[in-house]
Specification:
This protein is an alpha+beta fold. It folds into 2 domains: 3-309, BirA Bifunctional Protein, domain 2 (2-Layer Sandwich); 322-403, Anticodon-binding domain (Rossmann fold), CATH 3.40.50.800. The chain has helices at residues 21-28, 44-63, 77-81, 111-121, 167-187, 268-272, 296-306, 335-343, 357-367, 398-403, and strands at 32-36, 39-42, 66-68, 74-76, 92-94, 104-106, 130-139, 154-164, 192-197, 207-213, 219-224, 230-232, 251-266, 276-278, 284-286, 288-295, 308-309, 312-313, 324-328, 348-351, 371-375, 382-387, 393-397. The strands form 6 sheets. It has a 5-stranded mixed barrel. A 5-stranded mixed β-sheet has the order 20-19-21-22-23, sandwiched between helices. A 3-stranded antiparallel β-sheet has the order 4-6-5. A hairpin with a 2-residue loop joins β17 and β18 (312-313). The longest helix is centred in the middle third of the chain and has 21 residues, at 167-187.
C-alpha cells in the first residue's frame, strides 16, 4: 500500500481526552479514532491489526472444531427474560420511536440466542457435541470507559459456545479451549496466565480468566513465580509472599489485564430455553454448555500497552499491519523495490510521500511496523534495514535484502 493513499495522518500529540497509553499511541499513529466515550472507529491501519488477530483466532477455533457463524446484534427481550437477565444494568435497551417500551437490547452476550437456535436442531444425543463461535461487536453500558480499548462501550469480541451431553464431555472440551486460547495469546506476542476466577449465578463452578501482567491492569491476581498458577484476588485466599498450593513456590501480587475468559455454564441456560436431548436409553436430559470469550479489540489495546517505547508502537510481526515499511528519501525512487516485494506477497507500506526525511522516520517509529527499509542516495543502490523492536540497523544490497524473503 502506498502511504500517500492513506486518508489518515499521524499526529505529534495525543488527544487531550485520552488518558490511557494504548489509546494515545493508537490515535496518534492513525489506527483508531475516538467517536464517543468508549466508542472507537478502527481506521485502515487499525483494522489490518484487527484482521490479523481475527485470522489467528479463527485458525485456533476451527482447529478445535468450532463452526463460525454470525448472530443478530438486536437481542429480543424474550430471550433474556428466559434466564432472568433482561434487567442486567450493562445492557443498552432499544425501542422504536413509536413503541412505548424497549423490547430489544444491543447484544452484550449471546448465550441465550444461540441456545434458542440450538433448541431447534438438537433432539438426540447423536446431535451432540458441537461448538459454534462468532466475531462480533458487543455493546455494554460501561460507566468506566476511560481505558481506551481495554474497556469500551462498543468492542469486538470472539464468543464461542459449546454444547454437550455430559459434564465430563464439557470438561474435556474445556481443556481444548484452554490450550487454543493459550496458542492465540502466544501467537499475538503475549504471555497470558490461566487464572482461577469467581463463578456466578449462571456457572456451575469457578470460571477461568487469561491474564496478562501489566501495571495498568484493572485486575489484581496472585501469581506463583515458579509454576505460573494464578488466582484472581476477588476470590483468592492466597497471600503475597505465601506458599503456592500447586508447587510450594512463592506467591506474588500482580496487576493484570484480562484478555479472555472461559465459563462452565452447566444446564442453566438449557433449562431456561428448553434445550434438551434424548440419550441412548431414551431419557430426556438438559444440554450441558460452556461459554468462552476473547476480547479482540482489548487484545489489540493490550499489545499497544506493552509493545512500545518513547517513539511509538512496536508491533509483533504476527499482528503488525504490514511486515515492511519502505521509505524513500530525496530524489531516489523505491518504486521498483516496492513492486518486487509486492510480487512476492510481502505486506508492505510504501512511504513515497513528498515529506521531509525526519517526518518519515518519526512516522515509521510511531506506526511501529517490525522492519523499516530506507532507500536513499546514502544507501548507494542498496538499502538500510532497521528492526523496529531491536533497533538493529544494517546496510545490504537490494539482492541481499530480497533474499531475506526467499
Amino acid at each position: 500500500m502506498r502511504q500517500s493513499k492513506l486518508f489518515t495522518k499521524s499526529e505529534r500529540t495525543a488527544p487531550k481526552d485520552e488518558v490511557s497509553l494504548n489509546a494515545q499511541l493508537l490515535a496518534r499513529a492513525g489506527f483508531i479514532r475516538k467517536m464517543s466515550a468508549g466508542v472507537y472507529a478502527y481506521l485502515p491501519l487499525g483494522w489490518r491489526v484487527i484482521e490479523k488477530i481475527n485470522a489467528i483466532v479463527r485458525e485456533e477455533m476451527n482447529a478445535i472444531g468450532g463452526s463460525e457463524m454470525f448472530m443478530p446484534a438486536l437481542v429480543e427481550k424474550k430471550y433474556l427474560d428466559a434466564t432472568k437477565r433482561w434487567d442486567v444494568e450493562i445492557g443498552f435497551e432499544v425501542k422504536g420511536k413509536k413503541e412505548k417500551a424497549a423490547n430489544f437490547t444491543l447484544g452484550w452476550t449471546h448465550e441465550e440466542m444461540l441456545t434458542a437456535i440450538a433448541s431447534h436442531f438438537v433432539q438426540s444425543y447423536k446431535d451432540l457435541p458441537f461448538a459454534a463461535y462468532q466475531i462480533q461487536t458487543k455493546f455494554r453500558n460501561e460507566a468506566r470507559a476511560q481505558a481506551g480499548l481495554l474497556r469500551g462501550r462498543e468492542f469486538l469480541m470472539k464468543d464461542l459456545y459449546s454444547f454437550h451431553t455430559s459434564e465430563d464431555d464439557l470438561w474435556q472440551y474445556y481443556e481444548k479451549v484452554k490450550q487454543a486460547y493459550t496458542n492465540v495469546f502466544t501467537r499475538c506476542g503475549l504471555q497470558a496466565f490461566y487464572t482461577v476466577a469467581g463463578g456466578g449465578d449462571f456457572t456451575m463452578a469457578h470460571t477461568h480468566e487469561f491474564q496478562v501482567l501489566a501495571d495498568v491492569g484493572e485486575d489484581t491476581i496472585f501469581l506463583c513465580g515458579a509454576c505460573g498458577y494464578a488466582e484472581n484476588a476477588e476470590i483468592s485466599k492466597l497471600e503475597e509472599g505465601g506458599e503456592c498450593p500447586n508447587c510450594k513456590g512463592i506467591v506474588e501480587k500482580k496487576r493484570a489485564i484480562e484478555v479472555g475468559n472461559i465459563f462452565p455454564l452447566g444446564t442453566k441456560y438449557a433449562e431456561g430455553l428448553n434445550l434438551s436431548f434424548v440419550d441412548a436409553e431414551g431419557k430426556r436430559k438438559s444440554v450441558v454448555m460452556g461459554s468462552y470469550g476473547i476480547g479482540i479489540s482489548r487484545l489489540m489495546g493490550t499489545v499497544a500497552e506493552l509493545y512500545n517505547d518513547d517513539k511509538g508502537l512496536m508491533w509483533p510481526e504476527a499482528i503488525a499491519p504490514f511486515r515492511v515499511h519502505l521509505l524513500e528519501f530525496g530524489k531516489v525512487s523505491a518504486a521498483s523495490l516496492y513492486q518486487n516485494l509486492q510480487s512476492r506477497g510481502i505486506e508492505i507500506l510504501y512511504d513515497e510521500r513528498n515529506a521531509a526525511a525526519g517526518e518519515k522516520l518519526a512516522d515509521a517509529d510511531l506506526i511501529g511496523i517490525p522492519m523499516r527499509v530506507v532507500v536513499s542516495e546514502k544507501t548507494k543502490g542498496g538499502v538500510e534495514v532497521r528492526q523496529r523492536k531491536e533497533g538493529r540497523e544494517s546496510q545490504m544490497s537490494e539482492k541481499e535484502f530480497m533474499n531475506l524473503f526467499a
